[in-house]
Amino acid sequence: MNIGQAAQKSGVSAKMIRYYEQIGLISPPSRTDSNYRVYGPDEVHVLRFIKRARTLGFSVEETAALLGLWQDRSRASAEVRDIASGHIQALEAKIDELQGMVKTLRHLVHCCAGDNRPDCPILDDLAGTPAGSQTKGH
Amino acid sequence: MNIGQAAQKSGVSAKMIRYYEQIGLISPPSRTDSNYRVYGPDEVHVLRFIKRARTLGFSVEETAALLGLWQDRSRASAEVRDIASGHIQALEAKIDELQGMVKTLRHLVHCCAGDNRPDCPILDDLAGTPAGSQTKGH
DNA sequence: ATAGACCTTCCCATGATGGTAAGGTCAAGG
DNA sequence: CCTTGACCTTACCATCATGGGAAGGTCTAT
Fold it and tell me: What does the pLDDT read at residue A76?
């Protein structure tokens, strides 16, 4: 099948398939006489693997590692688990960071009257107004 | 003061200060005869505002809006609150997404023996093994 | 034969940041 | 006065993953 159909079946855009080929994540497929890339079910399977890993937030580099392990018959599942565990930790750190932001913002929004007065504790905070004039006591 | 000191006082790198000037987030400062940028306390204050907003996860575009409101004496704080509220929602959506990933990954890691057998439910999931053969029942 | 859908490669853009290189400037000390 | 080192300037390139588009070739159906 051509790249368009492989894209449709795998959920990876044709553009990205070429990109993955270019960076060596997937191997170059065979070509027709007219230089069209030709894919078979196996290639689509690989693309779907990549798609799923990317959807789960693995970087392309991590995906490459997982792909290598997937295609390695003698792989140790412990390696895979380590990659996944490390990724979970990274995701959780990111979540914590975002939650910290949300907490601060919610506090600020809570302190904000939301009316038409020019007083705005949110802006005051961003401006670095000496802590205590607006938000002290919370 | 020169850009280096402004960077140090504001926490925004000299590189980024020039970038912010280039994209119009801040106005071009005056220059010395030798073409050095010159900053005063007001500019540093603005930079700190920007730094804080970026730290809270506001995009540069959102930061520009907040900055405009901050500098507008007749602003309505409701506008500010709307921007912040919208940002909170966006952050929470991102958190949900990440938590979904973590949940899936934790499930997979939990199902993974982590030994040296080539069986690996994580890879099986990524490969799109028909649901039910490994993970059903959880 | 022609239209339209597909393919090819190549270049550019994003967003926010860092790096580097080539050159100008300034302040301190010999 | 001159050197040294720290600073500044602009300009370009890289990141990471993705999309957009142009210019041109190919295939399929009418």
Answer: 67
